[in-house]
From TrEMBL:
One of its GO terms (cellular component) is extracellular region. The keyword Disulfide bond applies. The gene is Gal9. This is GLL9 protein. Its main location: secreted. It is found in: Secreted. Residues 24-59 form the Beta-defensin-like domain. GO terms for biological process: defense response to bacterium. Keywords: Antibiotic, Antimicrobial, Defensin, Disulfide bond, Secreted. Pfam families: Defensin_beta (PF00711). It comes from the Eukaryota.
Amino acid sequence: TNEHEFSLGFWFYFFAAYSQEAADTLACRQNRGSCSFVSCSGPLVDIGTCRGGKLKCCKW
């Protein structure tokens, strides 16, 4: 049915987007950084992004 195809398409899109976002978030964590909604400031240095570029990756 159409609903079934839409549901499968939605889940495929969701997991594809999630795995893409997880790559930069994982890289941030591996570099001992943390994800932030705001720009890195003070002793924190911007070393990349998280969540597919939506968040900043900051490190002490």
